[in-house]
Amino acid sequence: MSTTSQKHRNFVAEPMGDKPVTELSGIGETLGGRLCESGFDKAYVVLGQFLVLKKDEELFRDWLKETTGANAKQQGDCFNCLKEWCDSFL
Amino acid sequence: MFSKIQTLLGDANMVKLAHDKYQSTYLMNIRDTNQNYSKKISQVGNPTSHSYSDYKTKSTMAAVEDLTNQELAEELRNLGVSPGPIIASTRRVYEKKLMKLRQSGGGEPLIQKYQPQTYVYQVKICRVLNRSPWADLKRQPDVDHRPNLRNRLQVNQSQQAGGGGGIPMIVKIFLLLLVVFFVYLVIVNMDPSSESNIPKSLPGDEV
């Protein structure tokens, strides 16, 4: 059985549409607020950044840390969430 | 009395303002000096990677902030990375990546992640070889068109730089032989016919 959270499972179960950035696994109110300040107000914008970084884990985690101050767990959760979403829908 | 306190407070405020202004200019100078210093450091490059400095072009010695997007992408490609589009939102992470790669002597840590088995074995072999007198011959600073080989050599350098306190192979082999010897003793003594090996009493003892 995987060790993903309910939030992760909810996100990767369907196309993200217009979901807000706080629906991403690992992104709560605080980090979501910081992302919105930087212009990343929807999950698909963060997806855009993820894709522009060519789905590279190290670069994406680095970017997330730079932009929001996310810790290692949050970085990992967000990366895995987007990666799995891409595997299913992209 | 009260007015005296007021003037004192007023003076204190002025002193504080002056102190703040001094502090901010002082800190700004410090920051500028640090920025210039760090720029210089990145310009000079990592001293341990001097063997590759011969064929480094002029652009590689520039600070990462001064490179254009194309030049930054070129630098990253030279170090084995395949960068995506370098735009406003991605530029910062690519700059950091380039600085990290330069500091580690042009190593490629990602290869380690993707090919753990064979790569670690090759690193070990190369590390053993690099400690030999043939190290200088082996570490050729040629710009060949085999990025994998070059990257492996580059990471070996960084590996070597970081792993100078490791146990040498010969000591490991010696310890292994010691352990094998003890195991042999145990097995020999466990053998049923080995009672003859164990004396019932020591020759010197008389009950």
Question: Helix share of residues of chain A?
Answer: 55-70%
Share in β-strands of chain A? under 5%
SSE order of chain A: HHHHH
Q: For this entry, what is the oligomeric state of its chains?
A: heterodimer
Low-confidence stretches of chain A: none
Q: What gross morphology of chain A would you assign?
A: globular
Tell me, briefly, the overall form of chain B: elongated
Give the overall pLDDT of chain B as a whole number: 66
InterPro entries (chain A): BAF (IPR051387), BAF_prot (IPR004122), BAF_sf (IPR036617)
GO molecular function, one term (chain A): DNA binding
Protein name (chain A): Barrier-to-autointegration factor-like protein
Main location (chain A): nucleus
Could you please describe the fold and organization of this structure?
Chain B: InterPro entries: LEM/LEM-like_dom_sf (IPR011015), LEM_dom (IPR003887), LEM_domain (IPR051656). Chain B: Residues 61-105 form the LEM domain. Chain B: This is LEM domain-containing protein. Chain B: The chain crosses the membrane at residues 169-187. Chain B: It holds the Pfam family LEM. Chain A: It is found in: Nucleus. The complex is a heterodimer of chains A (90) and B (207). With 90 residues, chain A is mostly helical. Chain A has one domain (6-89): DNA polymerase, domain 1, CATH 1.10.150. Helices cover 62% and strands 0% of the residues of chain A. Chain A contains 5 helices and no strands. Chain A has helices at residues 6-12, 29-37, 43-52, 57-68, 72-89. In chain A, helix 1 runs parallel beside helix 5 (72-89) and helix 4 crosses helix 5. The longest helix of chain A has 18 residues, at 72-89. Chain A is globular and about 25 Å long. The model of chain A has no long low-confidence stretch (mean pLDDT 93). Chain B is mostly helical. Chain B is built from 8 helices and no strands. In chain B, helix 2 packs parallel to helix 3 (88-103) and helix 5 (116-130) packs across helix 7. Chain B is elongated, with a radius of gyration of 31 Å. In chain B, 14% of the residues are buried.
